[in-house]
Amino acid sequence: MNNSINHTLPILWKHSVFALLLLSLMGGSLSAQDDAATADMTTKKPVKNTFESIWIMDNQTTMVPIKGTLEMDIQHRFGTVNNGYDDLWGIYSPSNIRLGFNYAPISKLNVGFGLTRDRMQWDVNLKYALLQQMQGGGMPVSVTYFANLAIDGRDKKFFGTGTDRLSYFHQLIIARKVTDKLTLQVSPSLSYFNSVEGYLDENGEVQSKMKNAHIALAYMVRYKVSSLMAIIVGADQPLTAHPTNNPYPNICFGIEMNTSAHTFQVFAGNYHSIVPQMNNVFNQNDYKNGQFLIGFNITRLWNL
Length: 304
What we know:
13% of the residues lie in helices and 45% in strands. The protein has helices at 2-25, 28-37, 276-282, and strands at 55-56, 59-60, 69-80, 96-106, 109-116, 121-131, 142-151, 166-177, 182-193, 198-200, 206-208, 213-224, 229-238, 250-258, 262-269, 293-303.
C-alpha cells in the first residue's frame, strides 16, 4: 500500500495544486460581489447553496444537510449504449441500483447507509463539513471530508476470510462557489480493498493483479441555468498504475432539477458501480469507445 501511495502522491499533488489554483483564479467575481453586498455588515456569513444535493452524478459534493435532516437516495444506472436498439441503448440491459438513507444528527455531520445491487454491497458512510466558504472575504473554499466502509455481500465462496469482503473510501472535497451560477469542485480520493484478485506466477507464487490502494482525482462543474435547473459536468481521473486491469477515466455530463425537498439528476457517464471505490478501481467502460450509460439520482429530504 505504501509503495502505491508514494508512487502517486507527486501526481496527486500536481493535479490538486492546478485545481486549487483554478478555483482561486476564477473566484474573484464572487468575492467582489460579496464584498460589495456585505460591506456594511460586521459579521461574515457562510456562502449558501454551493450545491443543492449531496450528490453530483457519481460523486459527493461539499453539501451537508442541516441538523435533523433525513434523506432518502435512489440511484440507478442502466447498461452501456453500445448495443443500440437491441437493448434500447442500455435501458433494457442489466442495471445497477442503490437505495440509501442519510441523517444529520448534529450540525455539519451526515451519516448514512445503503445497499447496492452490484455484489449486494452494504455501505456505511459519514460526511463532515470541515470548512465553509465565507461571504465578504475570509475562507475562499468549502472543504468536506467523506468516508465509507463497504461490505461485499456475495456468497462466502468468493472470499478467503470475512475481512476480504471489506473495502474503504476516503475523499477530501474542495469546492468554491465562483458566482451565483457557477460552482467548481475538486476531490482527491483514496480507495482501499482488503483483497484483490491474484494469479500464480511461473514459480507458483501468488501475485496480485492489482494494488490494494488506489488514488484518484475528481473534477466537477455545476452551472445554474435557472432557479430550478443546472447543467452538471465532471471527470474522474485514476492516478495509481496497477500491474493489470487499469481502470478507465470517467467523463460525465447531465442536468439537475431541484425543488425545496427533491433533487433529480439525469446524466450520461462511464461509471456503473455507484459505490465510489468500485467505480474508481474497477471501471472498464472506455469513453473513447463510446461506452457511456445513462444514470439518474433522486434524493428526498425531510426536516425532522
